[in-house]
Amino acid sequence: QSKHHRKPCGGSEERRGRFVIVETSSSSLQLKKVAFSASLSTSGREVIGPFNTQTPLVFRYVVTNIGNAYNPNTGFFIAPVRGVYHFEIHVFGIGHPTQGSGAYLVKNGQNVVLAYEHQTSGIGKSSNGVALLLEVGEVVFGRLFENSRILDNGNRHSTFSGHLMFTM
């Protein structure tokens, strides 16, 4: 059975945009589709924190989970294939005189990037993102910054999302 492959233009094959469609009878590389997005609250208003230590976050309301690599019971994303993934974390908070709102993106237990803001009144939202090379089975999750608190409700203000950019 014939399969189609794409490769950069450069030969006399059929050109379509920046790619060339090449027919081959050999087996093709299977593309794994992985993308997820989840928010903290499943329903109603939820405030998490403050705690005097960094605390794992579990984003329970799943908006998208293509490939089922995100677990809403643990809050862990576990890489199903070796590749480069892009992750984002968004945190929402209500102003407080002594407590900010913040969360880390964590890879295999190590803090990678922090989304943090502190306002004494009003509301605030912060976010951060990163591209990470992950091996099969490596874990990424969100972790609440110490002595901070974040809020979520039905508007899905506090989210954790990621997707596979390409395999390696």
Automatic annotation (TrEMBL):
Query: Where do the TM regions start and end?
Result: none
Write down any Gene Ontology CC term: extracellular region
Q: Which PANTHER family match?
A: CEREBELLIN 13-RELATED (PTHR22923:SF102), CEREBELLIN-RELATED (PTHR22923)
The name this protein goes by in its record: C1q domain-containing protein
Q: Which organism is it from?
A: Salarias fasciatus
Keywords for this entry? Secreted, Signal
Q: Where in the cell is it found?
A: Secreted
Q: Which residues form the signal peptide?
A: none
User: Main site of residence?
Assistant: secreted
